[in-house]
Amino acid sequence: MQSYQEFLDLSVGFPQEGFEIIDDELYFHDLNLMEMIETYGTPLRFTYLPIISKKIQQAKLLFKRAIVNNNYRGSYKYCYCTKSSHFRHVVEEALKNNIHLETSSAFDMPVIDNLEKKGIVNKDITVICNGFKTYQYKQYIIDMLHDGFSNIIPVLDNKEEFNLYDDELDIACNLGIRIAAEEQPDSQFYTSRLGIRMEDVIDFYNSKIASNPNFKVKLLHFFINSGISDTPYYWNELEKYVTLYCKFKKINPELDTLDIGGGMPFKDSLVFDFDYEYMVNEIVKRIKEICSEHDVVEPDIITEFGKYTVAEASGILYKVLGRKQQNDRERWLMLDGSFITNLPDVWALNQKYILLPVNNWDAEYERVNLGGITCDGQDYYNQEAHMNSVFMPKTRKVQYLGFFHTGAYQEVLSGYGGIHHCLLPSPKHVIIRRNRDETFNFEVFGEEQNSKQVLKILGYSS
């Protein structure tokens, strides 16, 4: 019978970029995963920071090429969507690449203030402030504008949001307006809950903002909920919003920026097939064509890539604690962690990630189900993105496996450092950097939670 390695190669083609097998063991971007397991144990969450910079530089280069190829007269600005991962090591790695930030809630603002006080950013950084804003969020924005953060751009999510800025700001402020996008055909709603109705945007500007000398609407923002995809829905929505930009520009010459949001996909399976170069070029090309049709100069383009920026930098490693044959057909591998608490998108959204064994690649393969260690019936993983099943090496030896490209949202959604289902602890988290001599630098960012920490949160100890 074929080995697991032969089976995977025939199924999807392997090795692939970022993954290779050396002496029957899996390496991730030259990282020896078995050595990491032997050093730090499992379950183990890890973040390999150089991937973040690599992804940012890839996108910046693609937009640069597209702008040149299409003789596009606008510029491109990369903003990192902080809600994908707020951790300091992630944000600081991203900021090494001369980028800007997009925020979604009040506590984002003290993060930026902290980064400025430590010299990581300057007060001229562009900050796109999105979201339906609480009073606290708006007050942070106002305070930071008064403190000299001149390129903070509050993006109006509703008409009433403008009132507080109008009352409390006596300095110049650039504004954005978010368009309430139409949802996908299979959505439960017709229109996004976020943003101002498309047909109200220009009237709102004329009645509330146009005559106010302190405010300029510089940016029009939309987010298409399908993400960036080569589909009729995406292109139709893009055309609608660029057309609105052109109409708005003619009555508001100060408007010069189109924020097309995020939604750039990341590699979430071994059969991932997305032509980044084509899509970026096509976006730039179509924006230019629509503007030409309306005799309007092309806008500067902003993107807010989150998952794309950070997802592929992280993974989580597990040990198989036991094997259970529950009937003639169903074999379970029980892991020393939980999908519900470690990878909540698996449980909540049926998200798939790249799943690979760490060792025993020369062994035969078998069909299995993966079981999390909680007592919840939904704590399992039994399908991959490219097939309706999961296969792992068939062996009696100690088995380790990993889920890869898990770096977006999972730590925050799982309540990092807090209370988890069945009181499972947060796993140890290791940050990995690469030195100039190509060696690796490992830092334990967080130890595995212990029972004293959990009991204290629950109120059992002072």
List keywords for this structure.
alpha/beta; eight-stranded parallel beta barrel; TIM Barrel; 24% strand; ten-stranded mixed β-sheet
Which class of the largest domain in CATH terms? Alpha Beta
The CATH superfamily of the largest domain appears as Alanine racemase
Percent in strands: 15-25%
Helix/strand structural class = alpha/beta
Give the integer mean of the pLDDT values: 96
**Proportion of residues in helical segments:** 25-40%
Gross geometry: globular
Beta-strand segment tally: 21
Q: Alpha-carbon distance between the termini?
A: 59 Å
Can you tell me the CATH topology of the largest domain? Answer: TIM Barrel
- Per CATH, which architecture of the largest domain? Alpha-Beta Barrel
Low-confidence stretches: none
Rg, nearest Å: 24 Å
The major sheet is characterized as: 10 strands, mixed
Number of discrete domains: 2
Number of helices: 15
